[in-house]
Design brief:
elongated; mainly alpha; two-stranded antiparallel sheet; 5 helices
């Protein structure tokens, strides 16, 4: 009977630990997804430089590849656990859409879509998120 009480307490303690680890706030989720977004940003910046970098010196806005940013909030500015990579400048965002999707005048090259669908990029993003998640678990007391 004494062994059962010890086991019962151990299982109860384990359950409490698992429950506390499972409670992830939107801010904590945003940290995890931001780690993946940083990797994606780097990959997209690299492809943008390779395919669409010019020698034009725009002192005000810079180049499209240099204008990528990460937003860890939704459109209303609330942390909801997601992170998004995009362009800070509307002109760069519109230009990237035209180059990616094509128009009557531009043939689409799908440079953004190809980075999004690249399995090696997806793997790097998931590994970065996994590493951040494991740090989170260790801080919360998990193994």
């Amino acid at each position: 009977m004494i062994a059962m009480v010890g086991l019962d307490e151990a299982l109860e303690g384990w359950l409490e630990t698992v429950a506390s680890i499972g409670d992830i706030t939107p801010a904590e989720q945003a940290k995890i997804t931001t780690a993946g977004a940083k990797v994606f940003q780097k990959e997209l910046e690299e492809v943008t430089r390779q395919k669409h970098y010019s020698n034009k010196k725009d002192l005000k806005y810079g180049h499209m590849a240099d204008g990528l940013s990460i937003q860890s909030t939704n459109a209303d500015g609330r942390k909801n656990g997601v992170a998004t990579v995009g362009w800070k400048n509307n002109y760069h965002a519109q230009n990237a859409r035209r180059l990616n999707d094509g128009t009557k005048k531009y043939r689409a090259d799908h440079f953004v879509t190809n980075v999004q669908n690249d399995s090696s990029v997806q793997k790097k993003v998931l590994l970065a998120e996994k590493a951040e998640y494991e740090k989170f678990i260790r801080r919360k007391g998990g193994q």
